[in-house]
Amino acid sequence: MAPSGSRNIKRNCQRVLYWIPVLFIWLIVAWSYYAYVVQLCIATVENMAEKIVYLLAYHVLFIMFVWAYWQTIFTKPLNPLKEFHLSHSDKELLEREDRGESQQEILRRLAKDLPIYTRTTSGAIRYCDRCYVVKPDRCHHCSVCDKCILKMDHHCPWVNNCVGFSNYKFFMLFLTYSLLYCLFVTATDLQYFIQFWTNGLPDTQAKFHIMFLFFAASMFSVSLASLFAYHCWLVCKNRSTLEVFRAPAFRHGTDKNGFSLGVSKNFRQVFGDEKKYWLLPVFTSLGDGCSFPTCLMNPDPEQPASPSGNAAIKSDGETHLFPAKPLRESQSRLLSNGLSWAESEGTGNKDCQGESDTICFNIWQGISQTQP
Fold this sequence. Notes:
Palmitoyltransferase; two-stranded antiparallel ribbon; protein-cysteine S-palmitoyltransferase activity; EC 2.3.1.225; acyltransferase; elongated; membrane
């Protein structure tokens, strides 16, 4: 009992410590609100029209920034669906097997009807022995949350949450509005910062707040700009941070562009089809987080599809069969605007490399056979 109690105390202490970075950000935001609204706009800006414009624009950005940040923090990361979890009997069967090959045979049997295609770098079924789940594509185990997270990007200490399928759009909007917020504060504060710096304005209580506000906003702008640009690149390439460091492995080998469908479709996979919701922190991402369409390169024109419906792809001199998996209903939305992934959209398919016969298509055949 004592070791268990000490572990619980340690875990609770860690949970409290994890909120320190978030508390720090909220304190900075609260102080910046006071410094900008009270000390700059109300106490320093004399022109009434300028004051009104500043306050209106500031509050729009402030509300959107806080809304997106709140959604990123408190949106619970999604875990694999029940069908990916091992039953009690399967767990016992797996634990009784000592040999890795025997365990893989069991996992292959369990995974044959699941919509998964990625493998480990050695070609094995991706399995989490802590959560007892066959990992869906792009799913990873977070050591901080101690859970498997769908389409995990990274665990962010500044939001004390995993950034993944359920909140990646919110995280992108958080970066967008926080960057705009800092740039707006820096731009509107600049002239008064210069006046205080050159003693053009009398020394008042506002001097410290205005000068420090400029330094803080400008420094945050630089760091946020680099992070925002990096994640924009990830969205355009349809990659996660983890996939940049380790490319997803398919049955034909690793492929860093395996999930890229072209810039337009990559963007819509995160932000959805309805443009009116793109800038709002509401969930509109396409799919269910467990299955993803992919882009397969260089199909062998001389190799027909197998009688069972499998698509045959030739890569590095070998022919690989890709099992036909039913496409989930949530993924078929991404296909609704075209008959195939071979859509000629100019730059839209730059990630699908090869000659004119390169075809982008979903690895799971039978779109009409949707799963519940």
